[in-house]
Amino acid sequence: MKLLIPGPVMTRAEVRAALAHDFAPWDRDFYPIYAGIRERLLPIAGVGTDTHASLPLQGSGHFVVEAAIRTFVPRGGKILVPMTGGYATRLARLARACGREVVSLPVGESERADPRAVASLLAADPAIGHLAFVYSETSTGVVHDAAAISTAARVAGRRVIIDAVSAFGALPLDLAAMPEVDAVLFTANKCLEAVPGLAFAIAPKARLIGRAGAAESWCLDLADIYAHAEKFGAGSFRFTPPAQVLYAFLAALEIFAAEGGPAARLARYQANLRVLYEGVQAIGLTPYLPLPLQGPIVMNVLAPDDPRWDLLSFVELLKQRGFLISNFYDTALPSFRVGLIGALGTEDYRAAVAAMDDALDALGIRKRKAV
Ligand SMILES: *Cc1c(COP(=O)(O)O)cnc(C)c1O
């Protein structure tokens, strides 16, 4: 079965094979593996160990989003969130649940967050200390202009948290040119194409030093993770790490480097997008977004305006043909979501379009255009 979903993504056989190695995480053989992973991640964000630290956290992406909010935004602090879609809504919910006050900037589902709107909201409310935004909005498929949005906060003298969970490893990121960023957040199982279970933050060391405890949570304290690593060595973990998952992640990072890093990965995902975008149009379907707005991470396709359309039946028919897509709607207008990331190439997307064509015929759908 090919998973056409934005995480957990398809992995290569080498990555899954690496899971077969058992490790004692406190053993000397494991330390360099873990320390090496931490170091390898920094150049992907355009920085090195001189200025930044990479901080692993067991769990999924939400855990590290909450950890970053707790670590860097003071309790009761105000945080501006451009409401770009489902993942921005989740970010805002996490912030409120931690007792932070969210100021929302409404953004339409098919538009990019406007850096000028960010600037004017920040200018209007000096109590907003942080801006937090989603780089690639995994619900709509829109990629936002992270550099421009972040610059608006820098100019206003505010700090920034970037949810780059579905962007990191493919979309450009140069933290060396973004001193306003407190944390960029990602996981192992999206564009880095490893198995789920690990989340990460990359943060400036200067912002981590002396901050341990401010999170009011031992588990979700990025500054405590940093302080521990400084005290006991870069290869030590505070609690039992998912050792096999870390080793599989190292295998995925080696494949990532051999493929050519973020630029090569982005090119592969863009090629997947082209095949899918043109392919669904060729079989009479309508993409949710116009091409200039469509990012290379996920793509939504509008549901056909035919009474026989039924998402779950379509998903089942596609499964019988070897492809799995998301089985829920994540946009205002009903649309089915197809991931473009993972260990997949254009031949997979050509076959997926043929399977969609076939599945629509099997459903007896005559009108494939959207309303
Ligand atoms: C996947 C994702 C997350 C985290 O989701 P988890 O299910 O907790 O791993 C957060 N933000 C974005 C933009 C994502 O795509």
CATH topology assignment of the largest domain: Aspartate Aminotransferase, domain 2
Task: Count the beta strands.
Answer: 11
Q: Record the strand order, biggest sheet.
A: 2-8-7-6-5-3-4
Q: Sum up the overall morphology in one term.
A: globular
Number of domains: 2
Give a short account of the largest sheet. Answer: 7 strands, mixed
Distance between the termini: 31 Å
Q: Can you identify the CATH class of the largest domain?
A: Alpha Beta
Number of helices: 12
Helix content: 25-40%
Q: Topology of this protein?
A:
Layout (H helix, E strand, L loop, with lengths): L1 E2 L9 H6 L11 H12 L10 E7 L2 H12 L5 E6 L2 H12 L3 E6 L8 H10 L3 E7 L11 H10 L3 E5 L17 E7 L10 E7 H4 L13 H11 L10 H17 L1 H22 L15 E5 L8 H10 L2 E2 L10 E5 L6 H18 L8
Parallel strand pairs: 1-10, 3-4, 3-5, 5-6, 6-7
Antiparallel strand pairs: 2-8, 7-8, 9-11
Helix pairs in contact: 2-9, 3-4, 5-6, 9-10, 10-12, 11-12
The structure holds pyridoxal-5'-phosphate (PLP).
